[in-house]
Amino acid sequence: MYTERPGPTGPAEISVASKFELTKSVEARKLNPRTGIATTDLPVLVPFGAIIADIKQDRDDAKFYYLGQYLQCAYDVLERAIVPIGGPGPDANSAAADVFAAPVAAPAAEAPVPASAPPEPEPEGARLVWQALRSTQGQCARAKVPGGWLVSLGSALAFYPDAAHDWDGTSPELPEPQAQS
Fold first, then answer.
1. Do 113 and 95 meet the contact criterion of CB atoms below 8 Å apart?
2. C-beta separation of 104 from 79 below 8 A
3. H/E run at residue 76
4. How far apart are CA 169 and CA 130, in angstroms?
5. Could you tell me which of 165, 125, 124 has the C-alpha nearest to residue 151?
6. Whose CB has fewer CB within 10 Å in the chain, the N or C terminal residue?
7. Where is mean pLDDT largest: 11-15, 110-114, 147-151?
8. Distance of CA 33 to CAs 42, 49, 99, 140, 172, Å?
């Protein structure tokens, strides 16, 4: 559904009255909400999974709203990074294709795997072997990697340098702080 309304750069801008989800992060410039001109602020990273709305095409740029901020980025970057919410994926009939005239290829369908097919064997070679660690902060594990340990706590990862792999997985005992007199 298209709406036509007065815009900051001319008498009217064509926009799509729907919301889209980003399939990858996009860097965008902040715009002045009244004039539609880019501000001198540093670019903003709009993260993967963000919901953007009110996309407008302005020459080679796309202008949109994210969390109440009026932003702009190159339309060719944005067209490859959005899918409509509550609708089909990006194809020639989607609202995203209506906003951006460039054709978008539909993903190829994979052949269904029969239920009786044996599971595929694990590939030979390198793989991470995770060891569970006791933690007071949640699910924690470590994996031996060249030069140290890869440590996972929830969805966060960190590298702990330990070339000899001497770390036993425990925290060092810290001295109790002494009371000042």
1. no
2. yes
3. helix 75-79
4. 12
5. 165
6. C
7. 147-151
8. 16, 24, 21, 45, 53
38: DSSP letter:
B
pTM assigned to the model: 0.43
Under 8 Å between Cβ of 141 and 160: no
Q: In 3-state terms, what secondary structure has residue 95?
A: helix
Structure-block tokens of residue 48 = 């993967």
Task: Tell me whether strands 51-58 and 44-46 are parallel, antiparallel or unpaired.
Answer: unpaired
Copy the structure tokens of residue 63.
């202008």
List CB contacts of 152: < 8 A, sequence separation 6 or more. 130, 139, 140, 141, 142, 143
- Residue for token pair 């064997």: 121
